[in-house]
Amino acid sequence: MTPLLRRLLMAFHPVAIIHAELYTPTRRIEDGTVVFAEGRILAVGPSREVRLPRRAERIDAHGRPVTPGLIDLHLHGVEGYDLFGEELAEAAQRLPRHGVTAFVPTTLTLPEEEILRRLQAMARVMETAPPGARILGIHIEGPHLSPKRPGMANPTWFRPLTPEAIARYQAAAGGRIRLWTFAPEEGEAMQAIPALVAQGIIPVIGHSDATYDQATEAIQRGVRQVTHFFNAMRPFHHREPGLFTAALLDPRVIVQLIADGQHVHPAAMRLLFQVKGSSGVAMISDAAPMAGLPPGRYTWLGYEVIVADGRCQTPEGALAGSVALMNEGLRVLIEEVGIDPLHAVRSATWTPAQALGLRKFGRLRPGAPADLVLWARWGVPEAVWVGGERMV
Ligand SMILES: [Zn+2]
After folding, report:
1. Chain centroid to CA 24: how far?
2. Does one domain contain both 62 and 127?
3. Is 362 within the bounds of a domain?
4. What's the maximum distance between 2 C-alpha atoms anywhere in the chain?
5. Which secondary-structure segment (H or E) carries 21?
6. What phi and psi, each to the nearest 5 degrees, are found at residue 56?
7. Four-residue CA torsion sign, 250, 252, 134, 178
8. What integer pLDDT is reported at residue 6 of this predicted model?
9. How far is it, in rounded angstroms, from Cα 392 to Cα 100?
10. Active site residue 286
11. Which domain range does residue 7 map to?
């Protein structure tokens, strides 16, 4: 039997994970069982209540956690592979070993012709549906950003968002753009928001210096998400409460949070969970392609970066993405920030799925895709399935 044939057969074979600490993640089941076959979850519940199919392969979790697969809305690469271009296929194969079963590959600020070329390459990869983690669409991050909040990006390439740019990018990407991070206060960008919504793209504020009034207007026009909250945005001030306050006060807005322990202080993370709740915070990795590589000097799409002490920085000291993936973020939230595991898991699975409007993803319930992780301990995946197919 070829390995491919064996993998296909395994996907149709019922699997039961028994005696797990299950995170559905709307609730925690202390001694739980989850059964799946043909890529879908068949049953979830307390082990004494779930009937196992006779021919099911049984995996005893011995009380270890089982969660939906992690969903990353914002990352640039992994293990030396850049998601922004043809290496997307290799990167997708490497993500399950970090507990990630679905993701939205994210672009970077470059000259427009280079961005369009790379979007075409990504669209070609997505057409082939490569093995590994599911690719849920493309996230545009740059060049429609504020020169006042550039992060690592080169502001000489920044442009205000326009409906014409949306059409050009979406054409190059074959209609696959799902998230678009931009600064609504730049140029006429505020007026371009309906054009994003009309194309099925979720407008995301980020790298923005928006005031409270500007952010409130952007939300009224359809913005529903904030890119890496706290990082590269106007901070809180009690007389100009800013995008910060507009996003915290509106329950329709989901905020992304980099939980690598480097970008945001643990107390600020606790504050965010207290104010928004885990259904309003989507944990992201913002991983750079150097995530998973040893410390050293690297070039990332022409940007020089230094990886040392758990950080990825430009020589000027701006953080340039993270070197931790979602599994590490989950561990940090639980073990260092003190977020209840149920809520930490929710922010890494169900909330990002909701942020994309994917009702069936990010949860363990009958009919949902069989994307799940059995954890040796928090941060360390022991077994990972995507669509019922075992990847790790
Ligand atoms: Zn960014």
Report:
1. 18
2. no
3. no
4. 69
5. strand 15-23
6. -70, 140
7. negative
8. 66
9. 11
10. yes
11. 3-67+367-390
